Amino acid sequence: MSSPSVVLLDTTVLIDILRNRNQRQKLLADLVASGRELAISTVSVAEVYGVLRAGEEPATRALLGGLEWIPVSGEVAERAGRLQAELRSRGQTRGITDMIIAATAIENGFSVATDNRRDFQMEGLELLPLP
Length: 131
Hints:
The chain has 131 residues and is an alpha/beta fold. The chain has a single domain, classed as Rossmann fold (3-Layer(aba) Sandwich), CATH 3.40.50.1010. The protein contains 6 helices and 5 strands, in the order βααβααβααββ. The protein has helices at 11-18, 24-33, 42-50, 57-65, 74-89, 96-108; strands spanning 6-9, 37-41, 68-70, 111-113, 126-127. It has a 5-stranded parallel beta sheet. The protein is globular.
């Protein structure tokens, strides 16, 4: 599945889709209409379920069930740790979950859709422009 036509949806975008914010449902529809494949890191699954509100589970299951789930491989875990260490050496602190999502995209050649652009500014990672 390694292809730049695949978009890895970050947790921020998934939550916006579920809560109908920032025109993210339109973004999702536009990406699908343009032939882009949509994927998520299994880390994002955990993050989304960690912030569910009452009544959101059916829509969450429907949304996540329609996406390709990318597991955390050994290569992704190693790259995530190296990314975090490299940024820390430059005085920048990033959470390991964001580093795992970034490493997943880099390892697979995916672009990332996120509202959290600051934490994903790194070499080798293509960020999808969001409206």
